[in-house]
# Entry
Amino acid sequence: MTGVDVAFWILAAIAVGASLVVITSRNPVACVLFLVVTFFALAGLFVTLHSHFLAAVQVIIYAGAIMVLFLFVIMLLNLGQEQWFDVSNNPLRVTAVVFGAGFLALLVGGGISGLAPTVRGPAAEISPDLLGSTGAVGTALYTAYFMPFITIALLLLLAMVGAVALARRER
# Structure
C-alpha cells in the first residue's frame, strides 16, 4: 500500500464522516461548514486520482461559490429560528435510513468484491493519463452530456427562484 492509497482512504473517511454530520446535524450553519469539509475532502480524492483540474473545480466552484449561495439562502430564509415544519417527526425517516444503509452496503460490497466498473461512453476513447484533464472534461460535457448539463442548470435556476419566492412570501 502506497502513501497515495493511505491518503485516499483517509480522505474518503473524512468525506463520509463529514457528510454524515451534514445530514444529521440540526444546525444549518454547521451543516454548511461540514459540507465545505466534505467538498475539500472530495477535492483531495480527485488529487489522489490524478485529476487535478476536477480538484480545482471542486474547490473553486463548490467549496467557494455554491457554499456562498447556500449560506445566502440560509440567511435569507432565516433557518436559524424555529420553523413551521419539523423534520424530526417525519414518518419516512426510518425508510430513508433503511434505503441509505442498503445503498451504502451495495457500494461497499461492490468495492470489497473487487468489481471494478469498465469505462464506457465518451471516456472509453480517452487515455487514462488524460482522463481528468480540461480537454477530456470539456469534450465529454459539451458532447455526450450536454443535455443533462443544461437540465441541471435549469433545475438549479428554478431552485434559486423558488427559494427567493419562499423568502418573499407574506408571513
Notes: The chain has two domains: 1-80, 127-171. The mean pLDDT is 76. The helical segments are 3-24, 28-48, 52-77, 93-112, 134-142, 146-167.
